[in-house]
Design goal:
With about 475 residues, the protein is α+β, with helices and mostly antiparallel strands. The protein is globular, with a radius of gyration of 35 Å. About 25% of the residues are buried.
Length: about 475
């Protein structure tokens, strides 16, 4: 019968047999195919997406006479899959990590020695490329980890400064190279509300807020409300703030997004607004700034001696005008600049002791006396920002105990800082007002949404 077939047909059949046989011999088994897919997942370092052993898209038409690499039965495809198996199985040896908690008194040299490395290796690391030299700045409480290969050679270092920030240094062909890696947390809005029965801080804590958030809340409204003397039982607040998450777990709180505080029946609302230039600040719903040009009080403490033109001096025992307000506080308590300005005087000033005087423009000056020490960098001519620490409470000068003596002068005349009208800070600019009003309307409406949700949750718990 073979004699009756044309020679060309016999040649084609023989060639097809060779191709099919080669494809069967060279194609990977299902076990090898599964192994290739699993290694692909490991190399990608992504446990979410599942790799597929085949491309399910329709292949393009191959050119005539050319084997199609997308055809799983072609020799080319078989060779490609065999090569991918070889690459996947060539895994990098795992590194061995050892971790050290940095304590007070530790040095970089001692930490390297504890990890088994001498100063020579340490110098190679800190003289490396990128940000490797930042390894020299260590702080107690941070964590440093060293990674070695199977032969004990140092391959990597990670200095964990916080949950969000790490300095990572790795060995490369050109020596060690470092970079700072900052993780971005996910911010989710949260809501807290409470009626004050005792103090703001107790009410905030019972509402699930941290002390830091309570202090920020007091700072936002602190230009209009004296939280030492003005807060009354029955006052209430509502706060929308950020909860920060990493890998699905909350680890901290962020900014206050909006807040409502009812003090003695008067409603105060503050909204955190970011303008088109990226600058953020708190504003009232009408666009007025929540900030004043000056803080009402430069320290969080009780008044021990008020402004009084007829006060008897506690040391000299004579009637001498008390042209300021005294705030009793423990030694070392930070003192804040009441407003933006320039240091007019910083040093010892007779009975005032260590004193700082700030000039703010518009013929306004503020004086801070009896400090234990001045703030870092505070000297004559230095510019300061509102809220910046300019010194610390002490008992220098003619005093009977530690406290801050604070004076507020307008045109050289002392004024009562607790009652003087303070100028407002800059409001929302006219070019932003339309955009701001739309934002403000949405933010104020959120209070009602959260309030209703909280009430429904409370009713559900009662049922």
């Amino acid at each position: 019968m073979l004699k009756t077939l044309p020679k060309t047909h016999i040649t084609i059949a023989a060639a097809a047999t060779v191709v099919v046989t080669a494809a069967i011999l060279m194609s990977p088994s299902s076990e090898v195919e599964a192994k290739r897919m699993s290694y692909s997942l490991d190399l990608n370092g992504n446990g979410v997406q599942q790799a597929s052993p085949r491309d399910t898209r329709a292949p393009a038409e191959p050119d005539a006479g050319v084997a199609n690499a997308n055809d799983e039965h072609s020799p080319v495809a078989a060779q490609n899959e065999t090569a991918s198996v070889d690459v996947a199985e060539d895994t990098t040896p795992a590194l061995q990590w050892q971790e050290h908690k940095i304590k007070s008194g530790n040095t970089l040299s001692s930490l390297f020695r504890d990890a088994g490395f001498d100063d020579g290796i340490m110098l190679k690391v800190i003289h490396g490329k990128g940000e490797a030299n930042k390894l020299q700045r260590l702080y107690a409480g941070e964590t440093i980890a060293f990674a070695t290969d199977s032969e004990g050679n140092l391959q990597a270092i990670e200095l964990k400064r916080s949950l969000l920030e790490s300095l990572k240094i790795a060995r490369t062909e050109n020596g060690f190279e470092g970079e700072t890696v900052v993780r971005e947390p996910e911010a989710r809005p949260a809501f807290a509300t409470a009626i004050i029965d005792g103090s703001l801080y107790v009410a905030a804590r019972e509402a699930g807020m941290s002390d830091r958030l309570a202090m920020e809340l007091a700072g936002i409204f602190g230009w209009d409300i004296d939280f030492v003397y003005d807060v009354r039982k029955g006052d209430q607040f509502e706060v929308i703030y950020e909860e920060l998450y990493l890998d699905g777990e909350m680890f901290d709180t962020g900014r206050i997004l909006s807040a409502r505080f009812v003090n003695r029946g008067k409603e105060n609302i503050a909204l955190l607004y970011t303008d088109s230039n990226g600058d953020s600040d708190y504003f009232a719903p009408d666009g007025g700034s929540m900030r004043k040009a000056f803080l009402r009080t430069p320290i969080n403490a009780r008044v021990s001696s008020p402004f009084n033109k007829q006060r008897r001096h506690p040391v000299l025992d004579v009637v001498r005008p008390h042209e300021g307000t005294d705030y009793a506080a423990p030694p070392g308590t930070p003192i804040k600049a009441a407003g933006h300005g320039r240091v007019h005087f910083a040093g010892w000033k007779g009975g005032y002791g260590r004193t700082v005087i700030l000039s703010h423009g518009d013929n306004i000056t503020t004086l801070y006396a009896h400090m234990s020490r001045l703030g870092k960098g505070i000297k004559n001519g230095t510019r300061v920002k509102q809220g910046e620490t300019i010194g610390y409470v002490g008992s220098s000068g003619m005093v009977t105990g530690p406290h801050l003596h604070y004076e507020f002068h307008v045109n050289g005349v002392a004024r009562n800082s607790r009652t003087v009208d303070l100028p407002d800070a800059t409001p929302v600019p006219k070019s932003e007002i339309v955009r701001f009003r739309q934002f403000a309307e949405q933010q104020v409406a959120q209070f009602e949404v959260y309030r209703d949700g909280t009430q429904q949750l409370a009713l559900a718990r009662e049922d």
